[in-house]
Amino acid sequence: MAPRVLISDNLSPAAVDIFKQRGIEVDVKTGLDKDQLAEIIGEYDGLAVRSATKVTPKIIQRADRLRVIGRAGIGVDNIDIAAATAKGIIVMNTPFGNSITTAEHAITLMLALARQIPAADASTQAGKWEKNRFMGVEITGKTLGIIGCGNIGSIVADRARGLRMKVIAYDPYLSVERARDLGVEKVDLAELFRRSDFITLHTPLTEKTRNIIDANAIAAMKKGVRIINCARGGLVDEVALRRALDAGHVAGAAFDVFSVEPARENPLFGHPNVVCTPHLGAATMEAQENVALQIAEQMSDYLLNGAISNAVNFPSISAEEAPKLKPFITLAEKLGSFAGQLTETGISKVQISYEGLVAQMNTKALTSAALAGLLRPMLQDVNVVSAPVVAKERGMVVEETVREGHCDYESLITVTVVTERQTRWVSGTVFADGRPRIVNIKGIRMDAEFGPSMIYITNLDKPGFIGRFSSTLGEAGINIATFHVGREAPGGNAIALIEVDGEVPPDVLAKVQALPQVQSAKPLKF
Q: Does residue 297 have an active-site annotation?
């Protein structure tokens, strides 16, 4: 059955064409209220939105088939990421589709603010000729402070340098080398406030960046500073900014985004030195077309091939690596499940090592799969997307080790689980047939495929065990599909991994546990 996608906001018709060309059924239903969306969302594998649709926990709870939410644009404020992650839904955005457009809008607002263009236009068209009223400032030679020098901020920096401005930037993630390549000076926030003639924001809204420009920050700025915000409402304390504008400490402000949108009223409205636009940063024909086409391609790639790009809650997986990665994701999840089903006490640490060719693959995705397998026996609702978050919430330390050099197998994944009582580890590989196998359990070699129903036994390597075990299952009418054994040394500790047809009843398992050489026996499901 072909995947189905719902487009609930206005997207370019070209996006609909892309879905159809890729063999995906698509419905366009815009203007739905939350109840109407909740009523039909269970019929779809994908949901494509812009900013109008609010994807709430209630919507996600009803989305039984939903595998991906695609946001045509960069901001995902309208999507409950935590709820989607818990449900195993990938959330994608298009962080680069409107970068140039937003950067250009910031530069446009800066120039309009410097020369009071909107007020001068309104005055002139009203029949006034107030040439002496609108005294502007040049931007040549002025210092532009950029808060957030990522994709959009770096484009703003490039354009500002072309306008012969001096550019300084605050961004904790900006390396000295990258700053040098951009031709900007990296500074701390206090220095940026102190030196800038213009300040423009290009950072996401987080708890750390909320009100990054507040009353104290404004007081630290030079008199006559002008502030531009085309990033996110809430980055600036608008009430404090209005007071600074009224006092003349801030010469002007230009805002495209507001703390509450749609902004029917705002503390900044009505001030003569404020320029406002209604969230137009991405509002160009090119940007709207780009993000619509991009999100359609991304969602199609995921629904059809398992490729993940620009996801905000899962590592990216390219279309080229997805087929190669798939059997190793299965292996990692089953190895985690093996360890999780045998673990009865709290987990303090999980160590996952990748050796050989698999070490060159996308290990972040593999680790997520291993954690999902590990946690699922204890927490039924955990999934590949939510597992890393759940592990962190439970205080588990997760460590990855990558060794690309030679090992006994072409590729080898080892999952080690450390609890308060013991350390348990299991290794596996994928052979040419594409099927995952267990090849080592706690240092004991074996070669066993995963079956739907299995029994894991630790025992002493003494004669008679296999015969007694087989008789016990035979008397209970349970058929043995495969039987794999391994041992440390003759007469020492041994293990057996047996695949059986159907489940093993508790009374039969008790009889197995009572056999003379058996130390433990546990049922496993994969």
A: no
Residue 441 is predicted with a pLDDT of: 92
Q: Tell me which CATH code domain 99-276 carries.
A: 3.40.50.720
CA distances from 378 to 89, 281, 347, 383 (A): 21, 46, 11, 12
Position 422, amino acid: Q
Q: Which of 232, 242, 376, 437 is catalytic?
A: 232
Backbone angles phi, psi at 429, to 5 degrees: -145, 175
* pLDDT at residue 380, rounded to an integer: 67
| Assigned fold of 4-97+286-305 | Rossmann fold (3.40.50)
Task: Report, as an integer, the average pLDDT of 466-491.
Answer: 89
The answer to whether 279 and 50 are in contact (CB under 8 A) is: no
Give percent of the chain with pLDDT exceeding 70.
Answer: 100
Q: What percent of the chain has pLDDT over 90?
A: 69
232 is catalytic: yes
> What pTM, to 2 d.p., does this model score?
0.65
| 321-450 fold | 60s Ribosomal Protein L30; Chain: A; (3.30.1330)
**Who contacts 34 (Cβ-Cβ below 8 Å, separation ≥6)?**
54, 56, 58, 59
Residue range 451-526, CATH number: 3.30.70.260
Identify the active-site residue in 22, 50, 242, 279: 279
Name every residue whose Cβ is closer than 8 Å to that of residue 176 and which is 6 or more positions away in sequence: 186
Calpha distance 138→165 (Å, rounded): 10
How many Å apart are CA 108 and CA 228, to the nearest integer?
10
425 forms bridges with which residues in the sheet? 416
Same fold, 4-97+286-305 and 99-276: yes
Is pLDDT above 80 for 405? Answer: no
- Report the largest interatomic distance among the alpha carbons of the chain, rounded to a whole angstrom: 108
Predicted confidence band of residue 145 (pLDDT cuts 50, 70, 90): very high
pLDDT tens-digit map of 52-97: 999 999 999 999 999 999 999 887 889 999 899 989 999 999 877 7
* Most confident region among 263-277, 358-372, 404-418 by mean pLDDT: 263-277
What tokens does 3 get? Answer: 């995947």
Kindly name the residue from 43, 130, 261, 286 that is annotated as catalytic. Answer: 261
Residue 1 pLDDT greater than 70, yes or no? yes
Q: Are 524 and 455 in contact (CB under 8 A)?
A: yes
Domain boundary assignment for the chain: 4-97+286-305, 99-276, 321-450, 451-526
